[in-house]
Amino acid sequence: SAGNRSSSSTCKSQAPYEAAALVCVADLYSPGARFRSATMTQRISGELMEPVTLTVNGATRRLFVPPQRTLLETVREDLGLTGTKHGCELGECGACTVLIDGVPILSCLTLTVNATDCEIVTIEGIGSMTEPHPLQRSFGEHGAAQCGYCTPAMILTAKALLDRDPNPSEETIAEAIAGNMCRCTGYLSILSAVAAVTEENQ
Q1: 47: helix, strand or coil
Q2: Which residue did the predictor score with more confidence, 60 or 183?
Q3: Hey, which residues does 14 pair with through a beta bridge?
Q4: Entry pTM
């Protein structure tokens, strides 16, 4: 998981946090700081909240979260990016995988406060219905998505692999996706889909 990151001390005016407006990170950590918004006081009343600034799919998102909130919860419930899936929430199935600084991580085991100052990419950030990522297109062409629950994590994991090794062997592909559980395809179609994209890179 991502290491501890320090919050920025630079206050950007006119940049509201999504949990409540009118408070800047620097204000919160200043000696004697007071909340400047009644709305803010109500939203955090009774529960410790941390200000975080996340870069998700190229967009800066500022919000307040409890210190124990996982990145999975933040991505799905606070940011509405539901391509990242709830699975076992024990770090075993891989369905919650996102990329942090290009590396696949298990968002169910990563605290949101530890993901500040990182580049976070979810499945929503790598393609669209009209312009799918080559891996998304290949998964469709090879029948590598059946129920589809594991597919976002599989594609992100494969993307991270191809970004660092455009022409991996089949064994390397299998090893890379080994942490992502699929109960439908038997993995052969997934391996074929990733391999097809590596052939395009040659």
Answers
A1: coil
A2: 60
A3: none
A4: 0.78
